[in-house]
User: What shape does this take?
Amino acid sequence: MTTWVYVDETKRAEYVIAAVAVTDPVATRKVVRGLIVPGRRRLHMNHEHARHRRVVVSALVAMPIAVTVYDAARRYRTDMDARAACLTTLVEDLADGGDIRLVIEQDDSLVGLGSDNQRLIEATRRDGNLNAYGATTAGRRRAPSRWAGRSTSVQLR
Assistant: This one.
């Protein structure tokens, strides 16, 4: 069975990446679609009212998902360095996790400054348990269930 790991970040105060592991992406998408406010195309906590945020959090907490948070704190001089450190650690943590599909939101502010795809491929090669055999960058989709506008997807085995 493939585990899907969806990754997103925040740079509000410090650089933090959250990785959400999902074993049933179809059921998870169905729940997430049901949480999207009518008239909106996607779910994003920055755009939700406090009452709806509580509904979203309650629904997510009840789901069979696992979340790992990577906090780069202020140990790195740039967001690019912090992102690289977090992504490398994430891939190392997934090394013994079996069949993993990793989906990472593209950070538009860092595009052109370094390649997430290249970093992931290098990180997987350092660990003999991993074999990155496919990487794609997806453009913006119309489907309301997309958690990320643009993402990098890498299959790890």
Notes: The beta strands are 3-10, 15-22, 65-73, 100-105, 132-138, 151-156. The first strand starts at residue 3 and ends at 10.
